[in-house]
Amino acid sequence: MAVNLKSKTDYMFQRIKFTARNLKFEIKVYKLLLNDIRTPKLSKILLGLAIGYALFPFDIIPDFIPVIGHIDDMVTVPTLILIALTINPKEVYDDCKIRVKDT
Fold first, then answer.
1. Quick one: CA torsion of 77, 75, 25, 91, rounded to 10 degrees?
2. Which of 43, 66, 78, 92 could form a disulfide with 87 if both were Cys (CB 3.0 to 4.6 A apart)?
3. What whole-number distance in Å separates Cα of residue 69 and Cα of residue 93?
4. Could you read off the pLDDT of 56-75 as tens digits, one per residue?
């Protein structure tokens, strides 16, 4: 039983590491998108709002309210990013991904 539990723990740890690497990669891509002149202004504004909302201590629904306060963050930030990426030309996003992979 301990072997099975250890393998599950290792699997979860590997998934967390994979997700963290992907998040770090995506943040670098978003940073390039914000600085790229081909990115539409509305896309830049939405990406900036997503970053600001994630980092700013004030939320629409305060985090001290159990569950709902954190769900608010988990819905608002990805939604803003999704809308920003939808507005953004695919070529610009792909170019930024390639530039991040090359570094």
1. -80
2. 43
3. 31
4. 867 767 767 777 777 877 88
Q: Confidence class of residue 26 from pLDDT cuts 50, 70 and 90?
A: very high
Please, which residues have CB within 8 angstroms of residue 98's CB and are 6 or more apart in sequence? none
- CB-neighbour burial class of residue 96 (10 A; exposed 0-12, middle 13-18, buried 19+): buried
Structural domain of 66:
2-102
pTM: 0.77
Q: Which tokens sit at 95?
A: 């170019």
The tokens describing 27, both together, are: 């943040």
- CA 97 and chain centroid, separation: 14
For the chain, what is the domain count?
1
Question: Which DSSP string do the residues of 12-74 spell out, in sequence order?
Answer: HHHHHHHHHHHHHHHHHHHHHHHH-TTS-HHHHHHHHHHHHHHHSS--SS-TTSTTHHHHHHH
